[in-house]
Amino acid sequence: MSFIPPPYPYERLEGLRDAASRHEGGAIDCSIGTPVDAPPDFVVKAFAEATGARGYPPSAGTAQYRQACAGWMHRRFSVEVPASQLAACVGTKEFVASLAQYLHLRRDDRDTVLYPAISYPTYAMGARLAGLRAVEVPMKNGMLDLESIDSSDRARALVLWSNSPGNPTGHLDDLGAAARWGRENDVLVASDECYADYTWSDRPHTILEHGMDNVLALHSISKRSNLAGVRAGFYAGDPEVVAYLRLVRQHAGLMVPAPVQAAVSLAYDDDVHVETQRDVYFRRLNILGDALREVGVTCPAPQGSFYLWCSREGMDGWQLAAWLAEVSGLIVSPGELYGPAGVDFARIALVQPDEAIERAVVRLRTSN
Fold it and tell me: Nearest CA to 192 among 47, 334, 95, 284?
């Protein structure tokens, strides 16, 4: 067997779960960024109507779906995206994992995927699943260090991934610089912007603010509206690339179910529920961040996302995760899961109810 899939990252946390579960009241799982709060009632009701369930839905998305996504981009980022330059995807993880494979069919002279050195593991895995090279780009002040990319890697690059706000660090990237670099080097830049609604230190940004040539923006309903389980998102940008991906993905049978498209369209048409959720995450980040700093954990306030990227003197990420499980019942993700450059850190996802976060805070303060 020439390819042996590695263990799924979060399956490596069983030892942490055992330690955290010894606390009265149980473990508090903040390892995976799975939303726990309720989605909007009007969206849940729309699922019950099962609109369009009898027929095959358009792979690229219904007109209603694409118009809702384009309308949200206009409200959120002040960019105009024609419907022909936007299409649905079945949750953004499948898009991340499959993009390199499809792009390589289009440009078989390129064999390299560039991705942030500290990042969501699926960027690199997408390259490996396509039989391509995965080359990490070092980070400088939380942003892609584009000047560090070797000339031979530039010449072989098929796509450069950016993620802003970033998972796991919460940093914002320089999307304008990434777009310019891609055009100068004839490399498609794919900007994963699924946490854009949870930008704290600035207004939300998209790479499409810097033009659409040779760039794609990727967005998800999962985090924005607490709908991770329905698997829906969209990509937008360069008209030639979008048209190519729409066709190849249609041949692959990738379709967001019609009832999901109908309900998600309503979610993208509404911003009120997102503002409510923003307040929830911002409060949780502050409450837990303050408690962690009181017990000697370094965790700067993130520029975006709902993660705390933490370290503690004298500990690597696994040791910090084990200590947090022991003293607070928190299950967190060691930073090594996001690349070797993250080895001294741990990521905490603020995706537990307020009462669970408060319970972790009490345990931390009584442990000191």
Answer: 95
Contacts of residue 338, Cβ cutoff 8 Å, sequence gap at least 6: 118, 119, 120, 121, 167, 168, 347
Cα separation, 245 vs 233, in Å, equals 14
Match 């979008």 to its residue by tokens: 242
Say which DSSP state 54 is in: T
Q: What is the pLDDT of residues 293-305, one digit of tens each?
A: 999 999 999 999 9
Confirm if 76 and 178 have CB atoms less than 8 A apart.
no
| 3-state secondary structure (DSSP) of residue 71 | helix
Domain boundaries, the chain: 9-30+273-367, 53-268
Rounded mean pLDDT of 22-51?
A: 94
- What is the dotted CATH code of the domain comprising 9-30+273-367? 3.90.1150.10
Cα angle 149-218-268, degrees, rounded to a multiple of 5: 155
3-state secondary structure of 297: coil
Q: What is the pTM of this model?
A: 0.96
Q: What's the pLDDT at 184?
A: 98
Q: Hey, what CATH class is 53-268 in? A: alpha beta
Q: Are strands 333-334 and 346-349 parallel, antiparallel or unpaired?
A: antiparallel
Instruction: Give the pair of three-digit tokens for residue 100.
Output: 């390199």
CA–CA dist 201, 361 (Å, integer): 24
Find, among 236, 188, 233, the residue nearest to 93 by Cα: 233
Is the pLDDT assigned to residue 183 strictly greater than 70?
A: yes
CA–CA distance, 254 with 185 (Å, rounded to integer): 31
User: 9-30+273-367 with 53-268: one CATH topology?
Assistant: no
Q: Report how far apart, in Å, the C-alpha atoms of 14 and of each of 29, 236, 286, 321, 331 are.
A: 11, 38, 28, 12, 10
